[in-house]
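To illustrate this point, what follows is a protein record of this kind.

___
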Amino acid sequence: MNSIIFNCIFLSTSNTNKSQYRRLTAQYEGLDPGRGKRKRKVIADKLREILEEFEAKADQIYALYDVVEGARSKGMGGGQSRQSWLEV
């Protein structure tokens, strides 16, 4: 179940966001700072939004690891490694 949650949270949206982030970063870096202030600001805002989404997903994953570790510490892991727990 943990791997299902992990996949749903991270993998389903991250590929789209990563490619969009790369595309926007390339656009942003290609802009002339002396021109197109409005376009630069729009791209920068979109990049910030994507970074906030990345951070939110990372926080969710961190919380899931805490749940797994808590379950293992209470003896629910049966001596399994973290990797095997995540594959359950």
